[in-house]
Amino acid sequence: MTEAVDTVNKTEVSEAALLFEKDKTLLIVDDDKPFLNRLAKAMTARGFVVTCAETVAEGMSAVQSAPPAFAIIDMRLGDGNGLDVIGELKTRRPEARGVILTGYGNISSAVLAVKLGAFDYLAKPTDGDEIFSALINSTSNSAGEAPANPMSAERVRWEHIQRIFELCDRNVSETARRLNMHRRTLQRILAKRAPR
Questions:
Q1: Edge-to-edge strand order for the sheet containing 70-74?
Q2: Is 161 helix (H, G, I), strand (E, B) or coil?
Q3: pLDDT tens digits, residue range 31-47?
Q4: Beta-carbon contacts of residue 38 (< 8 Å; ≥ 6 apart)
């Protein structure tokens, strides 16, 4: 029995790896510009040819003009739901592998994402290694299995502060106000390197 399961898993991993070797196109759709830029750089470093979009409309247009082999799509976007983009991608290219990202994880949206064709569903914050693994590996990691190298609480906090800082156009006073934090405390945090 275990030999049969191992054979199936090796076959599925091989299919994902073969798809990656054959076609490295990746569409990333996220309206969080700093996160989008960081993720695009991380995926480019891993060998993908990346196309970025910030809205559902841009994502749909990219899928309609040249359906990518892989996609990373935020669920909630300013002009709609990222699930529409996943649905369109799976219609145009059924073998494509898509991952849905969301900061608002719940079971019903995860089930819907998978029904519409997403291969995996990851809660933000997440990193490039976890996303790459979800795209290339055959088994989904979102079914309750703990990631091998989760971000530390300090790193999650730092990522959140950096995101708000970028959204406030790098204005320290406005960022401190939104985070309900003293300005000097925020300045000290911003001056330090990212924790591991």
A1: 49-53, 25-29, 70-74, 97-102, 118-123
A2: helix
A3: 888 888 989 999 999 88
A4: none
